[in-house]
Amino acid sequence: MEVRLVDAGQPPGERRPGGALEAEVLALLQSSQRALAPGEVLEQLDGGLSYSTVVTVLSRMFDKGLLTRTKQGRAYAYAPVTDAQGLTARRMRQVLESDPDREAVLARFVEDLPAGDEELLRQLLGDLGERG
Predict the structure, then answer these.
(1) How many independent structural domains does the chain possess?
(2) Which tens digit of pLDDT belongs to each residue from 3-34?
(3) Alpha-carbon distance 55 to 59, whole Å?
(4) Which of 80, 98, 118 is the last residue of a domain?
(5) How far apart, in whole angstroms, are the C-alpha atoms of residue 77 and residue 62?
(6) Kindly report the CA angle at 121 between 117 and 127, in degrees rounded to 5?
(7) Does residue 76 fall inside a structural domain?
(8) 61 Cβ neighbours under 8 A, 6+ residues apart
(9) Are both 45 and 94 inside the same structural domain?
(10) Residue 33 maps to which CATH number?
(11) d(CA 13, CA 102)
(12) Residues 90 and 55 sit within 8 Å (Cβ to Cβ)
């Protein structure tokens, strides 16, 4: 079954680009000082979304490990598992883990870094080595 999301800024029948709604919801939750229930997320999102669409998106994001949830009355309240940089690091790790030759992937990654980023990475690794 295909779900068509309608946004006030989009012509009827047009779909949001893949992941756009999840990104919008994630940004909203990351900017919040507390976990939000689906109704609160719906109130703060722009666009003609239904409550059930918001619940579905939040549930899928929870299933993907992007959000935590706690029971709040009859619904759940959702919060991100980490900040934006933590989620980016998780995605990088998932990509790394998807290739059986980790050494080659890491070597290529470092080779392709701009000089400033390579130096920053070396500094961070040095700092970690001193702690451990």
Answers:
(1) 2
(2) 333 444 455 445 667 689 999 999 999 999 99
(3) 6
(4) 80
(5) 11
(6) 145
(7) yes
(8) 22, 25, 26, 67, 78
(9) no
(10) 1.10.10.10
(11) 43
(12) no
Give the burial string for 39-49 (b: 16+ CB within 10 Å, else e): ebbbeebeeeb
Task: Give tens-digit pLDDT for 100-126.
Answer: 999 999 999 999 999 999 999 989 998
For residue 75, the enclosing domain spans 20-80
CB 6 within 8 A of CB 12: yes
Assigned token pair, 85: 């940089």
Q: Dihedral of CA 31/32/37/39: which sign?
A: negative
**Is residue 57 located within the same domain as residue 89?**
no
Residues 6+ apart with CB under 8 A from 77: 34, 35, 36, 37, 69, 70, 71
3-state secondary structure the chain: CCCCCCCCCCCCCCCCCCCHHHHHHHHHHHHCCCCECHHHHHHHCCCCCCHHHHHHHHHHHHHCCCEEEEEECCEEEEEECCCHHHHHHHHHHHHHHCCCCHHHHHHHHHHHCCHHHHHHHHHHHHHHHHHC
Q: Given the structure tokens 């080595």, which residue do they identify?
A: 129
